[in-house]
Automatic annotation (TrEMBL):
Residues annotated for substrate binding in this entry: R99, N101, D119
SUPFAM superfamilies per UniProt: Calcium-dependent phosphotriesterase
Protein name as annotated: SMP-30/gluconolactonase/LRE family protein
InterPro entries, A to Z: 6-blade_b-propeller_TolB-like (IPR011042), SGL (IPR013658), SMP-30 (IPR005511)
Annotated family: Belongs to the SMP-30/CGR1 family.
Domain SMP-30/Gluconolactonase/LRE-like region as annotated: residue spans: 15-254
Active site: D196 (proton donor/acceptor)
Keywords (A to Z) from UniProt: Metal-binding, Zinc
Organism whose genome encodes this protein: Halopenitus salinus
Length: 287
């Protein structure tokens, strides 16, 4: 199959997810959710390090001091700093049997965090976690909340609802952190796979990974698919920008349920997207 991507780490990760470029470390970080592992890749040397093993990490953010805020199971949130874990939130009522899935820091250091039922993809919620640990449920019912990203002018938040195969756009108030007035930004036609992780480039265009779709797609301003980049893995999970000037795109994938002949299933890929990214916001969540 023709491909636009190169496998830079061929690790057959069960569900590689949530890739983020750590500006200070100049390395790409990502999670393997079922394994309870966090990894980082140095593109300069090609070195790969597993630096965390423990509770399943559904998503994470990079903090302003370089530490990581980890979003775990049943509403558990912790900060990983210099190898030490410190709990911020013990758990969230009603999240028993759930886990965090995808998360994003906002311009004020808050984190929007989706949760999902591990057995029933029709059950999910979106929370906002403030720097002081205050928890606000902002969307009470979602069918597998997933990738998120902000518009360049910070007036909108994109949110993927994977099981419904829709990307929503919410009005976003940077001062208060409130979101409102959702509208459909994009819907994926039947047979194209399922929307998974998401990122936004420097031109304000939305990129989405296609689970069971072997691709990452770039949407135009009206939500149509303008470009498609083939990935040599069936279960493509999330894109992010990284490297010098954020000119590279890194893409995670999953080996879980993959055909044994899918030789790059679960790999971390790199491709040339033809456009730069913008730095992700950092969180300020503290114990």
């Amino acid at each position: 199959m023709p491909t636009d991507a190169t496998a830079v780490v061929d690790g057959r990760f069960e569900i590689g997810e949530g890739p983020l470029w750590h500006v200070a470390d100049e390395r790409l970080y990502w999670t393997d959710i079922p394994a309870g592992h966090l990894h980082r890749y140095d593109p300069e040397t090609g070195d790969v390090e597993r630096f965390y093993e423990g509770e399943s990490v559904g998503g994470f953010t990079i903090q302003s001091d370089g530490s990581l805020a980890l979003f775990l199971t049943e509403g558990h949130v912790a900060v990983l700093r210099n190898g030490d874990m410190e709990t911020v939130i013990d758990g969230i009522a009603g999240e028993e049997g759930m886990r965090f899935n995808d998360v994003i820091a906002d311009p004020q250091g808050r984190v929007f965090a989706g949760t999902m039922d591990m057995d029933d993809f029709s059950v999910g919620r979106l929370y906002r976690i403030d720097p002081d640990g205050t928890i606000t449920e902002v969307v009470e019912s979602l069918e597998l909340p997933n990738g998120m990203g902000f518009t360049p002018d910070r007036s909108g938040l994109y949110l993927t609802e994977s099981n419904a195969n829709v990307i929503h756009r919410y009005d976003y108030d940077e001062e208060t952190g409130e979101i409102s007035d959702p509208e459909t930004f994009a819907e994926l036609p039947d047979g194209e796979g399922m929307y998974d992780g998401l990122t936004v480039d420097s031109e304000g265009r939305v990129w989405s990974a296609l689970w069971e779709g072997n691709a990452v797609v770039r949407h135009d301003e009206d939500g149509g698919i303008a470009e498609r980049f083939e990935i040599p893995a069936e279960f493509v999970t999330a894109p992010t920008f990284g490297g010098e000037s954020l000119a590279d795109m890194y893409v995670t994938s999953a080996a879980i349920d993959a055909d044994p002949e899918d030789e790059h299933a679960g790999a971390l890929f790199r491709l040339d997207p033809g456009v730069d990214g913008t730095p992700e916001f950092t969180s300020e969540i503290e114990p």
